Amino acid sequence: MRVAVIGGGVSGNAIVRAVEARGCSVTRLSRSTGFDVLRDDARAALAGVDVIIEATGRFTTNRKKATAFFTGSTRALSLASRDLGARHVLLSIVNCTRPEVQGYGYFAGKTAQEQAALAASPDLTIVRSTQWHEFVHQNLERMKVGSISLVPGMTIAPVALGSITPVPVRIPGRLGRAFRDGALLPGAHAEVVGPRFRDWLAAQSS
Ligand SMILES: NC(=O)c1ccc[n+]([C@@H]2O[C@H](COP(=O)([O-])OP(=O)(O)OC[C@H]3O[C@@H](n4cnc5c(N)ncnc54)[C@H](OP(=O)(O)O)[C@@H]3O)[C@@H](O)[C@H]2O)c1
After folding, report:
1. Under 8 Å CB-to-CB from 85, ≥6 apart: which residues?
2. Pocket residue to mutate for ligand 1, from 91, 107, 138, most atoms within 8 A of Cβ
3. To which H or E segment does residue 156 belong?
């Protein structure tokens, strides 16, 4: 399974680690590796990949700028995923599409991004996460006025990034469908022997 991770930030790094740990070959693409999703030929850069994970981001509270960036990134990757027959996985944020948070330009951009992906990607998975623990540090850096960081009052339910990013990789085609549909399960009357997985796992670490 060949996976491309677009975006080299905190999530991009965590996804690369998670995907490599599952034995997949990973290509990382972002401006620091010489690929600009808004300008470069995504189809050429992604030729041969099975899965495209979109973890690009640009922090801005300006609605127009956020929308231009997020929809530009997603349109390029949606078209590439369609032309290459690759699955498109898009990172997004729980409840960013709610009407009452659209006044925050970044969320308006994420909403437009989800809509663009839904319209253009034939094989799409949107992974919506709450904020990550890493968000605290990101916010301190992003909301700086001189040497002062503005900390907006927010009630959030953050999670560790590492527990979000292992995305189940969907094996394409007949074989993948068979695996998902339970082709390897025994019959209803099969005799089940030995410890259950949970008990077996607990015994390994004791
Ligand atoms: N942070 C959170 O708590 C959180 C929670 C849920 C979902 N998300 C979503 O997850 C996604 C990634 O967030 P993040 O926190 O990992 O962002 P991040 O740390 O800001 O990283 C975003 C990356 O995008 C890359 N990038 C920016 N412009 C690019 C361009 N034109 N072409 C190619 N790559 C470009 C940058 O790498 P280069 O500088 O190398 O180009 C950057 O490292 C975002 O869509 C965000 O909304 C974030």
Report:
1. 123, 172
2. 91
3. none
pLDDT digits 0-9 by tens, 54-83? 999 999 999 999 999 999 999 999 999 999
pTM metric for this prediction: 0.84
Instruction: For residues 190 and 204, give the distance between their C-alpha atoms in angstroms, rounded to a whole number.
Output: 26
Residue 127 Cα to ligand 1 midpoint, Å, equals 14
DSSP 57-108: ------HHHHHHHHHHHHHHHHHHHHHHT-EEEEEEETTTT-GGGTTSHHHH
CA angle (144 as vertex; 140, 148 as ends), nearest 5: 90
Taking the centre of ligand 1 as the mean of its atom positions, its distance from the CA of residue 96, in whole angstroms, is: 16
CA distance 85 to 152: 42
